[in-house]
Structure formats: C-alpha cells, structure tokens
C-alpha cells in the first residue's frame, strides 16, 4: 500500500474515532450520574449540527463572512442551545423515571430519538434530504515527507484533541467535575455531603450534550453535508464504544471510540484481501461482530468497573 | 349507586364484545370522519369504564376464566375475518397483528420471564422470512415444514449469541443484541446471493395441495386469499399462546421468574441459571422465527429494509406497552401499535412523530403497560383469599 493511501486511511480512521469518542463520552457521563442510557444522544448530535447550520445561514444573512468568526459563533450557539436541550431532556424525561426499570428509560430515549429525527425531517425546510454543510476550513494539502493530510482534517483532529483535554480538565480539576464524580460514585452520599444532586444531573447532561454538539459540527465540517438520519447509527456506534470502554470510565469511552473506528478501517482494508467475494462494504458487519466477540471475552468492557456482588 | 361490579363470566363476554366491536370499527374506518368517530368512541368507552370502575372487575374476570377469554378471542378473530372477507387490506392488518403477537410471545419469554433483553427481534423475524424464501425458492420442502425450519434456523443463529448473552448483564447485554440486529441488516444489504437491498420474492404457499395465495370463489362469493392466512395466523397464534402459558405455569416458568427477579438467590436455591437463560433465549427466537416465516410467505416478498433496528423497537414496545410478562397484553398492544399508524394515514407525515410521543407518554404515565402482569395464580377459577 502506498504511503498516500495509508495516510488517507489513517486520517479517516482518526477522524471517525474522534467523532465516535465525542458521542461515547456523553453516554459514559450520563451513565455515571444516573445509571441510564440516553439513546437519543446521537440525535442530539444531529440537532447540534442543524443548529450550527441555521446559525451559519443567519450569520451569512447579516453579513458576517469571516470563516473563523463564523465557526466560533456556530460553536458557541450550538453548544449552548444543545446543552439546554440536554438538560431539559434530563429534567422532564430522565429524572421522572428514576425509579422505573432501566428498560423503560432505554425505550423512552429511543422514542425521543425518533421524535427528534421526525421533527427535523418535518419542520426543517426540505428536511428529508441531505443538507450541504458549509466548508469553512482551508482545504489545501499539508505535506510531511511522504505523508500528506488536508488542512481541514488536521485542524479538526487538533480541535478534537483540545476538546478532550478540556473535558479531562473539567472533570479532574474543577469543582463541577468533582461533584460529577461524587454523584457518579454514590448519589446518596453525595447528597449528604451537600451536593445538589438535581443540578449536577442537569449540568452533566448539559455538558455531555454540548460535547455531542461539537461532534455534530465536526461531523458536518468533515463530510460537508448533514442528514436528519445521521444520529441513529452514530448513537449506536457511540453506545458500542462506551460499552467497549466499560461505561464507567470517560477514558474507556475515548479508547472505545478509536477502537471502533480502527475496526471499521481495518475491516474496509483487510476484508477485500481475504477473497474477491468479500467487498469492503462488510466493514460494519466485521466491526459489530468483533464488538460481540469482545463482549463475550470481557463482559463488562475493556476497562471494567471494579465491583462486587451485594446480596 | 355505583356498586363495584362482581367479576363474572358474563361480564367478561360483555367486555370482549365491546373490545371486538371497537376492533371492527377501527379496521372498517377509512375516511378521516370514520376514524375520528372510532377514536372518539374509544375515548368514551375508556372514560365510561373508568367512571363505572369496571376495569378491576373485568381484570378479575379475565383471571378467573382464562378459558372463556381464550374462546372469546378466537371467536372474535374469526368473526372479524368473516366480516372483512373481501377486504384485502383489513385482513392483511389482522394477519400482521396476529403474527407480530406470536413474535411478541417469543420476546415475552425472553424478557418477560427470564429477563434477557433482546433488541434484535426484527433480525430473528427476518431470519425466519429469509429461510422461508430460500427454502421455497430452491427446494421442494413441504411448506408446513418450512415454517418449523424457519424457527429452527432462527434459534440456531441465535445460539451464536448465547455465550455473550450469558456473560453480560443489563446494558452490556442490550448492546450484544443491538449489534447483532445491525450486523444482520447490513449483511443482507451487501450480500448478493440473498438479493441485496432489493430482497427476494417468495413463491406462493401451498399446504397439502391447498393454495393459500389464491382467492376462494364459492359461487358468487369471492373471499380474499388473506382469509387463508388469517386462519393460519390464528392457529399459529393460539398454539404459541398455549405453549407460552404452559411454559409459564411449569417449573421452568417458575425457575425463569426466579432468575429474572434475583439471580443470586436463584443460584442459592439450585436453579440452573445458564440453562434457564438458554431455554428462554432459544425458545423465544424459535417463536419469532416461525412468525417471520409465515409473514414472509404472507407478503411473498422479503427485503432487508423490513428488518431494521426500528422494527426491533416496535416489537419491544409491543411487549412493554402490553405489560411485561403478560401474554394477554401483547394482543391489544400489537393491535394499537400496528393498526393505529396505518389508520392515521390522513395525518400522513406526522404519524411517526405522534407514535413516538404516544409511547413516551405511556412510559411516563402508565409505566406498567396496559395489562400489567398479575401475581402468579396457580389455580385459575378458584377464589383467592
């Protein structure tokens, strides 16, 4: 394989991994504080991308054309709005079902995903077709010896890395992060220690959803288009990544995200080599099959939660 | 003035007459106006039942006379079939409800009794359909046998998941089946031998020389061929229901209930947890597969798009809406979930939106489902203390 093709696969894999990690982190955060799976998370990401698109159209209309300023405003508006959406979901749909069986919450959020998808499809003008997402980043090639990468991919990768480091900082170095970790460890005790459980849950859902908004904008900028149905598969992949990582560990989720992207990339490269009858379109079959096998081997994820059975 | 009604057999029959009258109305309604009137009628009946407080009495009658309830249902479905003898669409809906109920019984064994989550219901349904398609196209297997083989293949492919399902818990187990469902659909889409995204056509069904896909003509009377399938689906549904109830009442059912409620306690009492889970998972997939095989023959066409993750969700929401663990609940839940979106055609675009909102509302305000499972009653018909 030539260096150029290799670098293409590598960049594409890293990019996918970054987006998956953004989604997976949300699942892990939510599971931490509430022990629930927010399955509409992928659709929240889609909503974030559409919010950014609307913001862009608005900025264009009032004559702000500097692409960097546009991206900044899009990020801020989309993250804030989506954080509010996430917190509202927590307040009106997740918290009331705190004592219900987990299956009910799972089904409820799955249905919420359906509702969000349908809302965008029905009420965004011509929403059932893919919408072009503006190319705001410079797209010339950067060369490092034989290795070449497009400037926009490089910027997105760095931005993703910065976001993950920032999240790490928030969780380990701030009071909010401390409170989130306390609630995740033991909600009752955290409450006794004077932490406002209700607010921390809402803030965590806001934080996770804002991450999804960033993921949505990255996804839009990378593929230059956005579709109302993009959230379903992204949500399932993000969930797989979070589960592979162990569901209780934010770093596990990031690891899981990159692992899933690696599986897809390896699948699309290696499968055609097995035999001519196996096209690279089997890559998702391959990736999900490996996920099932990994779970059979490590039933509670790669970075397992330390727990013992209480009777 | 409002005495609480005494549970009795006649009350049960009265309730069933009302239920099937509503079912007839819903199936019959075509224009916006008729559908509107039927919906208003349903609301009135529900409100009246609530005002007269008959619901608990009806529920108790159902528990006391399961045999009468069963006969009432069989009779009701036969009457509906007769009433719509020349209406293709109504009969198709009726068959779909019955077959999805059979699949629902399968899932009910899995998570109603044993607590195993299965989010790949549509995949196992699809395995049944595709098995039927391949067998009827390429071999001369008798068609009744095809149905059984469809179930067996579904159970066999499902057994690939047994190891991960046994080892994982909760959300991790949910992911195993979700991943399998997506894997299955993607596999079908890229696999050319099984028709790819276009799917396959299925030849007509033939049981002992009886052509099921041809209209029956008796003199001037032209009966839709779907009536054949309605009877076949009803027979299948009744057999599946009896099996599920027998299973529930047997020692296997008791052990499964224990495994679901508390695995550790069950193992302390010597219940073989792994064996119970394997039985539940395999038996459930078998039923789903058989239902899928009949459905494939009914529509004489299979395509990957019928077996998506959303279809698995429809199956799961049927079981939850009906009341987890209560096979009786699945029938009305299947009717609501499958017929309502079809009858709401006049709001076309908005029906999935409304459907999503409806399920969310039910989960928020009636989380136990329409007919919650009652406490085990070992000797139906005997008065409880």
Q: Tags for this entry?
A:
heterodimer, A: 311 residues, mainly alpha, two-stranded antiparallel ribbon, two-stranded antiparallel sheet, 4 strands, B: 385 residues
Q: What's this entry about, in short?
A:
The complex is a heterodimer of chains A (311) and B (385). Chain A has 311 residues and is mainly alpha-helical.
Topology:
The complex is a heterodimer of chains A (311) and B (385).
Chain A: H1 3-34, H2 41-62, H3 67-94, H4 102-123, E1 131-132, E2 141-144, E3 147-150, H5 151-173, H6 175-185, H7 187-192, H8 197-223, E4 225-226, H9 230-245, H10 250-274, H11 283-297
Chain B: H1 9-28, H2 32-52, H3 55-64, H4 66-83, H5 88-113, H6 121-138, H7 143-158, H8 162-167, H9 170-190, E1 200-201, E2 206-207, E3 210-211, E4 216-218, E5 221-223, H10 226-249, H11 251-261, H12 263-268, H13 273-299, E6 301-302, H14 309-322, H15 327-343, H16 351-365
Helix pairs in contact in B: 1-2, 1-3, 1-4, 4-10, 5-10, 5-13, 5-14, 5-15, 6-7, 6-9, 6-13, 7-13, 10-11, 10-13, 11-13, 14-15
């Amino acid at each position: 394989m030539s260096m150029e093709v290799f670098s293409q696969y590598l960049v594409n894999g890293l990019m996918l991994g970054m987006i998956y990690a953004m989604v997976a982190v949300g699942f892990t955060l939510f599971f931490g504080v509430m022990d629930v799976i927010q399955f509409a998370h992928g659709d929240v990401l889609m909503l974030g991308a559409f919010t950014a698109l609307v913001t862009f159209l608005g900025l264009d209309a009032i004559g702000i054309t500097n692409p960097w300023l546009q991206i900044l405003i899009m990020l801020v508006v989309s993250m804030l709005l989506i954080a509010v959406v996430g917190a509202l979901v927590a307040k009106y749909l997740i918290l009331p079902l705190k004592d219900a069986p987990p299956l009910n919450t799972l089904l409820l959020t799955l249905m919420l995903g359906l509702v969000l998808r349908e809302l965008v499809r029905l009420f965004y003008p011509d929403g059932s077709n893919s919408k072009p997402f503006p190319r705001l980043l410079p797209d010339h090639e950067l060369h490092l010896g034989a290795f070449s990468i497009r400037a926009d991919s490089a910027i997105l990768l760095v931005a993703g890395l910065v976001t993950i480091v920032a999240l790490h900082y928030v969780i380990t170095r701030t009071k909010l992060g401390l409170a989130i970790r306390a609630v995740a460890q033991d909600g009752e005790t955290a409450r006794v220690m004077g932490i406002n459980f209700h607010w921390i849950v809402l803030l965590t859902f806001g934080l996770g959803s804002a991450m999804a908004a960033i993921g949505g904008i990255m996804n839009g900028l990378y593929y230059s288009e956005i579709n109302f149905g993009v959230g379903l598969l992204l949500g399932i992949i993000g969930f797989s990544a979070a589960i592979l990582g162990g569901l209780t560990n934010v770093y596990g989720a990031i690891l899981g995200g990159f692992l899933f992207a690696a599986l897809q990339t390896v699948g699309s490269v290696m499968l055609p080599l097995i035999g001519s009858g196996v096209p690279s379109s089997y890559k998702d079959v391959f990736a999900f099959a490996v996920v099932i096998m990994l779970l059979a081997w490590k039933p509670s994820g790669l970075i397992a939660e330390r727990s013992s059975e209480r009777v | 003035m409002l005495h609480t009604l005494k549970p009795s057999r006649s009350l049960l029959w009265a309730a069933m007459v009302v239920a099937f009258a509503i079912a007839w109305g819903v199936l019959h309604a075509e224009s916006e106006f008729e559908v509107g009137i039927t919906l208003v009628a349903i609301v009135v009946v529900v409100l009246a039942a609530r005002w007269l407080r008959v619901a608990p009495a009806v529920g108790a009658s159902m528990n006391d006379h399961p045999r009468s309830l069963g006969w009432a249902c069989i009779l009701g479905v036969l009457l509906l079939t007769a009433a719509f003898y020349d209406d293709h669409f109504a009969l198709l809906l009726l068959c779909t409800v019955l077959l999805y109920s059979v699949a629902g019984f399968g899932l009910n064994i899995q998570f109603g009794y044993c607590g195993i989550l299965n989010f790949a219901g549509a995949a196992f349904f699809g395995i049944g359909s595709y098995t039927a398609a391949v067998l009827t196209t390429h071999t001369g297997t008798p068609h009744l046998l095809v149905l059984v083989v469809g179930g067996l293949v579904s159970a066999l492919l499902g057994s690939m998941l047994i190891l991960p399902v046994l080892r994982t818990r909760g959300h991790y187990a949910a992911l195993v089946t979700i991943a399998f469902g997506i894997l299955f659909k993607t596999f079908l889409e890229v696999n050319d031998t099984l028709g790819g995204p276009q799917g396959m056509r299925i030849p007509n069904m033939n049981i002992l020389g009886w052509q099921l896909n041809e209209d029956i003509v008796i003199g001037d009377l032209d009966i839709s061929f779907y009536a054949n399938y309605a009877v076949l689906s009803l027979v299948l549904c009744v057999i599946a229901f009896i099996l599920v109830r027998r299973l529930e009442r047997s020692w296997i059912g008791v052990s499964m209930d224990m495994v679901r409620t508390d695995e550790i306690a069950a193992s302390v009492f010597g219940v073989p947890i792994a064996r119970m889970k394997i039985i539940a998972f395999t038996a459930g997939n078998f039923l789903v597969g058989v239902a899928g095989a009949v459905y494939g023959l009914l529509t004489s066409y299979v395509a990957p798009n019928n077996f998506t993750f959303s279809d698995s969700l429809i199956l799961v929401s049927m079981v939850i809406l009906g009341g987890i663990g209560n096979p009786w609940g699945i029938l009305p839940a299947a009717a609501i979930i499958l017929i309502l979106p079809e009858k709401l055609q006049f709001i076309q675009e908005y029906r999935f939106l409304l459907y999503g909102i409806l399920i969310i509302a039910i989960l928020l305000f009636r989380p136990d489902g329409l007919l919650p499972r009652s406490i085990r009653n070992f000797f139906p018909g005997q008065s409880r203390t």
